Amino acid sequence: MALSGGADSVTLALALCELGYKIEAAHCNFHLRGDESDRDEKFCIDFCKHNNIELHRVHFDTVAYAKLRKISIEMAARNLRYSYFAQLKKDISADAICVAHHQDDSVETVLMNLIRGTGIDGLIGIAPKNGDIVRPFLCVSRADIENELQAIGQNYVTDSTNLVDDVVRNKIRLDILPLMKQINPSVSNSIAKTALRMEEVAEVFYSTISKAAERVLTDNKKDVLKISLSLLISGPSPENVLFYILKDYSFTSMQIEQIYSSLGSGPGTEFRSSTHALLIDREYIFVEPLTEDKQKRFVIPETGTYVYNESVKFKVEVIDNEHHNVICRDKNCLFADFSKASFPIVIRKAMTGDRFIPFGMTGSKLVSDYLTDRKFNLFDKRRQLVVTDSEGQIIWLVNQRPDNRYRVSEKTKKILKITYTDN
């Protein structure tokens, strides 16, 4: 269990021992309060020795970690604390990580979320169980905890930073809640009960939203998410369904609001999170991972089998044009007149301004227009590969159509054959 030396963690440790649980305590020294941090650690050492509790201690350079990660001190301490707890739980084969958040902490969290702006989750407060983390004291008030310690004569340490209203949570605890209690002395209990009701509401809400999300997700591939716009708009609470789907792809609440507002603005609108790109197309929303394009130009100097990336290969052959040869019309295979397409050939992504003469036609066409006619979305266009000859002319729009200038005829003696495979 987490032991800070404060009233709540001390009371929890004593309660768990009295109930017969085998506990081991963990104390984190974040070195943020000078001598006071060391005082807290010494208290925990003495407390655990007196109560026959095994104590694990860890020291963190929290300020350096926060600067390195470019996060707040509060977030840095939280990340360090819970990462350590998770590793320690594994090392000592513990059943759970017990922390001493109490009812007042949960009430403060609800108010803090309301001030910042929140959805249903923020109105629930602190969860009593979150994976391996359990919080047995969420039904106990701070006053009850302090009264219990006073009754048994147990001392504890106080974090002096909790007594100064310089951060949001402290302002709520020291300024806002006392004002609210002037209106309703039992306001903390009222908010806590409301949070419990909201937990039940959330279960019903997310059950409905998750079913709606399953309905709008169609034909999804391994790395590409495809959301039906018509099913999304016609279903229940479209914006919440969109939030439910996109929150796991690093999109912020503000971005998701902007995405939802842009649904009627026409195809081609694109958004990016830190990990994914999102495209609003005609009938669908597409989401796929951001990737670095490491294969801009892939040069093939001669015949052979070439690995373009981890899944795509190209087999390049030069064969005689004999009567028994069958010209394959498979979209994954190219047959071209080798006298018109000399090595080295190049495989690359299609670029703005690329033109070719589609097989069977006489006039040239922009590759982008050709793909648009076939209802390719922006992501598909960016992925589209072309094969060019030594002069930079497009021989083949890979998996789509060859260029008419390189077509095989009766006069062709040698055939350039390129086979595309995707594992």
Tell me briefly what this model is.
With 423 residues, the protein is an alpha+beta fold. Helix content is 40%, strand content 21%.
Structural notes for this entry:
The protein has 423 residues and is of the alpha+beta class. The chain folds into three domains: 7-192, HUPs (Rossmann fold), CATH 3.40.50; 217-289; 297-422, Phenylalanyl-tRNA Synthetase, Chain B, domain 3 (3-Layer(bba) Sandwich), CATH 3.50.40. The protein is built from 14 helices and 20 strands. A five-stranded antiparallel β-sheet has the order 10-14-17-18-19, with no helix packed on it. The chain has a four-stranded antiparallel β-sheet with strand order 6-9-8-7. Strands 11-12-20-13 form a four-stranded antiparallel β-sheet, with no helix packed on it. It starts with 6 loop residues before the first helix and ends with a strand.
Secondary-structure blueprint of this entry?
Elements: H1 7-18, E1 24-29, H2 35-50, E2 54-59, H3 62-69, H4 73-92, E3 97-98, H5 103-116, H6 120-124, E4 129-130, E5 133-134, H7 142-152, H8 168-183, H9 187-216, E6 225-228, H10 229-234, H11 238-246, H12 253-261, E7 269-272, E8 276-280, E9 284-289, E10 297-300, E11 304-307, E12 312-320, E13 333-337, E14 345-349, E15 355-356, E16 365-366, H13 367-373, H14 378-383, E17 385-388, E18 394-397, E19 401-402, E20 414-422
Parallel strand pairs: 1-2, 3-5
Antiparallel strand pairs: 4-5, 6-9, 7-8, 8-9, 10-14, 11-12, 12-20, 13-20, 14-17, 15-16, 17-18, 18-19
